[in-house]
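Submission sheet (multi-component)
Chains listed below:
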Amino acid sequence: MAEPPATTSDATLPMAAVSAGDAAAVRDLVPLVYEQLRRSAQRHLTGERAGGRGHTLSATALVHEAFLRLAGPREIPWTGRAHYYAAAAEAMRRILVDHARTRSAAFRGGPEARRAAINLASLPDTESESESAGFLILDEAIARLESVDAEAASVIRLRYFAGLSTEQTAAALGISPPTVKRSWAFARGWLKEAIETGRV
Amino acid sequence: MAEHAHEDLRKLFDRALATPRDQRAALLDRECGSNPALRRRIEAMLAAAEDESGFLSSPTGDSSQAGVDVGNAAMVGRSDSDAAGETLDAPGTSSSAKTGDAPLREAPGTKIGPYKLLQQIGEGGFGSVFMAEQEKPVARKVALKIIKLGMDTRQVVARFEQERQALAVLDHPNIAKVFDAGATETGRPYFAMELVKGEPIVAYCDRHKLAIPQRLELFEEVCRAVQHAHNKGIIHRDIKPSNVLVCTQDGRPHAKVIDFGVAKATAAKLTEKTLFTEHRQLIGTPEYMSPEQAEGSLDIDTRTDVYSLGVLLYELLTGTTPFSGGQLRSAAYAEIQRIIREVEPPKPSTRLSRNTDTLASVAAHRHTDPAKLGSIVRGELDWIVMKALEKDRSRRYETATGLAMDVRLYLSGEAVLAAPPSRAYRIRTFVRRHHRSVVVASVAGVTLILGALGTTYGMIQARRAADRATEHANREKDQRQRADNILGYFTEVLASGNPWSSASTGDPVEMFMTASSGVESRFKNDPLSAAAVRETIASAFVGLGRFREAIDEVNLALASLRASGGDHRELQGRLLLLRSSAHSDLFEWVNADADGEAALSLLAHSGQGDPRHQAELKWKYGVALSKSPRHEAKSRELMSEAIEAMKQHPPEQVGSRAADAERMAWYCASMNRPSDSIPYYRLAIELRSRELGDRHPRVALLMHNLSIRIPDDQEALALLNGALDIYTQTLGPDHLQTMNVIGGLGRRLTVMGRFGEAEDRLRQVLVYREKKFGPDSERVARLLIVLVDCLLAQNRIDEALALQKRVVANYDATIGPCAALAAELVVLAKVAGDAHEGEAEAAAIDRLESVLALIAGDADAELLHRAASVILESDLARPRDLARALEWATAASQRGRVARSVRLWALLDTLARVQHRTGDSAAAVETQRLAISNLPKGGAERTSMDNRLAEYEAAAKGGPP
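Outcome: structure written.
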């Protein structure tokens, strides 16, 4: 478990160059963070197996933990972290999507997947086919939401993928906590309604 | 969708959300009067956004969202008035409970499975709790806890089913029963449990201003309840104040632990999924969570509950948890983990002195003043709490009972077992630090040497302390050098156990042989050190079951000691005791006794050595002799004297407490008070595990001894298997002790009626002992006795008879006439009778007669009674046999009366039968009446005894036959 966040420095380097509001900088950061997370998760996985626990995954949990390690509050000052979180949330999303795609073959797109999507309380268990399929639908819905309400989609992504609290999300996006709460409520309502009624 | 349309949607949604529910309809009427589709959509979205379970309900840390504080089971069965004042221990979840705007799906009147909801009695992030009524199969009121979770209900229920059987046998006054689990119509899991009135323990204690001792008593009760569940194989996993409800019963606080089985059923999903999504919700209640649980480890055992109990105790003492909720909740998940796993919390007394602003009120709640509270908690209570909170679970209390016991010891003013690390511990860590590879290489050698080394080192250190007072620094330097030399030598010996070293064979016996042969040259100019080293080696040989080698080593040590000149009577005494114990292990009683006597008189006249130490040595001698059936009385006397002396000279060092517990356990057991010995054995196991590690052969020995005294078969089997495992790994499969445990298994399995398994094991040990000690050795006879019992229980009379003949021949040759031999003759006579071998039976009875005549006073009532019975039941009792039987039965009744035997009725019954058989029916009538009057009420024998009385009366009336 004692995986030192030694690779953090790789990520902080480009971070120093990032200026607030620069979407391109986030994109540049994603591959780097993604790679770190994936490597870290991989190491965890093999470590776990070697430890004989015989417990496959969950990759989600491991990646998430790896992320929290990388993004731990002491490593990066808050001012520079907004991009980092956005990048990490995106990286997390990609990893999960990768996993989910390999898992969800039987369920993809069907009514069962839709039901699974609206039953997702949190990140999917990527070992579960139905949850993986549901997750892909949710991911699509978030993409649709983004096209009409970027802020609500950002709130969802930071909270859902990066696991940030209301306050952290507010700080990361530079908006007030009540705004985050409103956007969160709206996004949840919008997404569920959209999935249930087949709008997405 | 057009962009402006979305903006409208968003605006309207935000407005509606901000509008109180009862006014929303009006708002929507106004805003979408012409657009019913929009209205439906907004309404659906609002419902989704305000549904705090299910879809995206758990990745948030936002206090307006209900948490998925799964383990949180606050307020089950609370009365309304209590619930009103309650805030959940997770601050984030309280707002939703207070504002109460969460949509309620279940309401009074709803039927869920066989339950009808009556009223809501609690609510929180986990869901809601209702008082409910069950009509079938029994009419009763229950607490129904409905989990508000977006989790797989089927799995929750399935997991509950797995534990249902275990939960069903939980029967303890301090545990609330969980009856049932199921799914509501909306698909949410629910649990039905015993309705408990009460409030969380911490709140109760504060409200009633319970003083520290009262709190501790209550806490002890909780520990016992948790232990009960542990004994049944159930781990709670979520012990915290809101799961320990207290009410006043008969003027006393009475605690009930609720939610057993709930955390496990709802937890598995947590570790995989929700665990990492968000701080507060990821994990039940981080304040009470053990490091291994926080880590997400799948390997959770009862010690996780011990940790949580430690947190609870911390809070009962100080009013706060070791890590405050705020401290944990403000941290990122990795940080929470780090805190729980790595940060050492302040001791309770330190915490009290730091929180100066709240100290006054905390003290007032404990019915004391701030200064006093600090001094009550400082020291032993600090230690107890900190031991329960050890990060490494192997250093915690092994069991909840262990914790309870220490609390009890504290309350009764005795020394507690928790303490700062002992000297032995420090030596061990020292060696381990320097010779890690060695420890791995030769576990047996190292564990043995460390025990012995501790003694030697301690002795030298103690002497050093004494010297400091009388002699000057020179001498001290000398002593230190001696200690270092000895330590250095053993370090080399240990290193030879390293598989990378060319000298290694890996066999500990070999290792100590090598060590022994090196002593001569290494300590040529220091015979005193040579003797000390040899003492260590000799005790290692005893530990390895090499008794002959041990005796040789002691002889060499004694020679060195003589060569050194000077007065070393204490060491000499110890060496003689060691030899005595080796002799007793070889069942060489004459030598054992002689050495023991010599040692005692040496020690008594040594002039040095404190009385405590002497008492300990006397104890050892008593224990050595206790193995001999012939020296029972003497052994008991020695042990009693030693115990008395020890009581007058209590130990100075904490490390000695383990030895004290062992002694008391052994003492009670050898005084035929097995049930008294059990708590001492448990304490000893706890202490030794802490001191030596829980895989130490010493711990295994205690487990084995405890198993003999434990009435519960399953627990005994578990202990035996545990001991077997430790011995096999540390001492090897062929060690004497390992074999003893296998024999113990055979014995217990016989009692349990699992004869096949029992016999396999007993025969395995028999082969071993015949080979190692010779077919005619006393140890073989001891085993044959058990095997005979096993065969008799299967009605294999002829085989049993053959073996029993061997037993008697063996005892005749080895120990000679004594009560043990007489007892075996009784068995022989009986088995021979059953096998219709009249000659053998008659011979056994004749021999029995002569042995009983020789040991006269040593035979107890039970033995005499059995001897008389065997004649009574014999088909071919001769008149002179019956005369003997009369004599024995009379003596048995007399002795039974003097000793106030609870089985006096049986002794008298037998006497009456003999009297009747020998023609004195009048006396039989009288005796039988006395016997019946001594029979406990409801005795099953009453009818047959009455019948016999009638028979005697009839015979008495008819005159002598």
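Remark: The radius of gyration of chain A is 17 Å.
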